[in-house]
Design brief:
- With 526 residues, the protein is α/β, with parallel strands linked by helices.
- Helix content is 41%, strand content 15%.
- The protein is built from 19 helices and 18 strands.
- Strands 1-9-18-17-16-15-14-13-10-11-12 form an eleven-stranded mixed beta sheet, sandwiched between helices. The chain has a seven-stranded parallel beta sheet with strand order 4-3-2-5-6-7-8, sandwiched between helices.
- Helix 10 links the parallel strand 11 and strand 12.
Length: 526
């Protein structure tokens, strides 16, 4: 799913109206009806008090459309206009006239000197005060209204975006934003819904298709994409009947140190489980017996040192190298890494202590092959790019870092982001069960194993993050968040692959109707 910028949404709005030969008011009607349909399907006429708060711009116009259709269908509706300015948009005024023609109970104007309406905890609030075009902080009395929403504990549904929230910046004060239970976003979700600093303003969100011009949606390139099954299916490489283990590459995992050999085992196992033809682990001597005994499919090369890596030398020719898991930051290890990078030309995936060593000596970043993949957790990222002010500042710094060194960064989090220069891919799979030791090592192995099979580094990162998260989603169903471990994620990687090709089951009612039609045809034939 493409995530369109505000500017692209405005362009799509105008182009759609022009190409479909409709007015902007008609397009607004279409959007408002979609919100109404969503509510009507769930409420089925229930007489719950619904409070529709409309601004005086186009988002307010959307709210007036929703209110009008709710009134026409007999719902208990109270409509308010939040009168924060004397200016009104043309489409707002058009819908203001229409609602006055619909009901004798005209919208109530709320200004800075008016009392706020009483809202019960079992009521519903529809927030259509501000849209994506907000360009200044809300007035104090409007902020107080938002707090009135919150204190009421009523279910709050925001139209397109929670009022006061921006798509490209963190609010100066959390109180300046409506805290929504649900947001119905027009045509495209918003980047802000996936970032910790701003995602908190809506518990859930959905995208409503309001019929934008299809050609515009297909051809317009976006700076941000949301990655789901439909986006990764085209990435998948099917296997030829006559392929063999050499066809799918040789992954080398370099890592481990005394007490942290498990990291190398997890990365090696996941590289093989995701489909690499061969996997070799390069570890200090203390790792030989643990890997040999617990992971018989792996080959092993040991360093001359017992407890840590001190000299990265090998005679094999790997397709890709995953480096850094559990490796430690000993002086000898740092020196070995520097020597290795001066001659290495093999694609790299670098995690954990590999990233920490790069952070200590940033000159090494210039030695990395183009499109090397770095997979930092937040603290490791901070060591790489420095402290950030907020999530949008972090993304700005990440993109600049990626451009400067020609690297791919996989920013781990609730929504893991893959960043290559100005392009961001947001992953849609995964769950809180991944917040456990070793899952980052598994991700390193997954991406490394995909590159071994011939996926380019960007595709391997996007696909690998998706499969890693989907595996966790499958594993957690029988375990719960707390009991899931990194090993469980490896064990369900195969299920994640199979899930790519599963078709959703038809609704039971539909299936029964089709079966009834078949029986009817048979009886007529007889």
């Amino acid at each position: 799913m493409k995530i369109f910028s505000d500017k692209q949404i405005y362009e799509g709005d105008k182009l759609t109206a022009k190409k479909q030969n409709i007015t902007s008011t008609e397009l607004m009607e279409r959007a408002g009806i979609q919100i109404f349909n969503w509510l009507h399907l769930r409420m089925q006429g229930a007489q719950v008090p619904i409070h529709v708060f409309c601004g005086i711009g186009n988002n307010g116009g959307n709210g007036l459309v929703v209110a009008r259709h709710l009134i026409n269908h007999g719902y208990h509706v109270n409509t308010y206009v939040v009168n924060f300015s004397d200016k009104r948009t043309r489409d707002f005024l058009c819908n203001y006239d229409l609602i006055k023609q619909t009901t004798k109970k005209w919208p109530t104007l709320i200004g800075p000197d008016d009392d706020f309406p009483e809202i019960g905890p079992d009521d519903i609030i529809i927030d259509a005060v501000f849209g994506i075009g907000l360009n200044r902080p809300a007035d104090d009395w409007v902020v107080n209204l938002f707090q009135h929403f919150k204190v009421s504990k009523a279910f709050t549904l925001s139209v397109d975006i929670p009022s006061g929230m921006k798509t490209d910046a963190v609010p100066a004060d959390d109180n300046n934003v409506v805290w929504a239970n649900h947001t119905l976003s027009f045509q495209s979700t918003k980047l802000a819904f996936f970032l910790p600093d701003t995602a908190k303003f809506t518990e859930q969100w959905e995208v409503l298709d309001i019929g934008f011009d299809r050609e515009y949606l297909i051809k317009t390139q976006t700076a941000v994409d949301l990655i789901g099954k439909q986006e990764v299916l085209p990435i998948y490489k099917s296997r030829d009947k006559f392929s063999h283990k050499g066809t799918f590459g040789h992954a080398l995992i370099i890592g481990g140190s005394y007490g942290k050999i498990g990291a190398a085992i997890l990365a090696s196992r996941s590289a093989l489980s995701i489909g690499a033809g061969l996997v070799t682990a390069f570890v200090p001597k203390c790792g030989y017996i643990p890997i040999q005994s617990s992971f018989p499919e792996a080959m092993i090369i040991t360093d001359e040192q017992e407890e840590w890596i001190s000299n990265i030398q090998f005679t094999i020719t790997p397709t890709v190298i995953g480096l850094g898991v559990g490796m430690g930051t000993e002086k000898a290890t740092a020196e070995a890494l520097q020597v290795f990078l001066t001659t290495n030309k093999t694609p790299l995936v670098i995690d954990a202590d590999g990233i920490n060593l790069l952070s200590k000596n940033k000159d090494l970043l210039k030695l990395l092959p183009q499109n090397t993949v770095l997979t930092p957790h937040p603290k490791e990222l901070e060591r790489l790019i420095g402290v950030w002010k907020d999530d949008f500042d972090k993304l700005k710094k990440v993109k600049a870092f990626s451009k400067k060194y020609h690297l791919i960064l996989v920013i781990k989090g609730a929504y893991t982001l893959t960043v290559l220069e100005d392009k961001i891919y947001i992953n849609s799979t995964g769950n809180p069960g991944l917040a456990t030791a070793g899952t980052g090592d598994v991700l390193t192995g997954v991406i490394t194993g995909l590159i071994a099979q011939g996926y380019d580094s960007l595709a391997a990162s996007v696909f690998g993050v998706y499969l890693h998260g989907k595996s966790a989603d499958i594993a957690v169903q029988g375990l719960g968040y707390e009991a899931m471990t990194a090993t469980h994620v490896i064990d369900t990687l195969g299920d994640a692959y199979l899930n790519l090709f599963e078709q959703p089951e038809p609704p039971k009612v539909e299936a029964e109707e089709k079966e009834g039609e078949k029986k009817e045809k048979k009886s007529k034939t007889k």
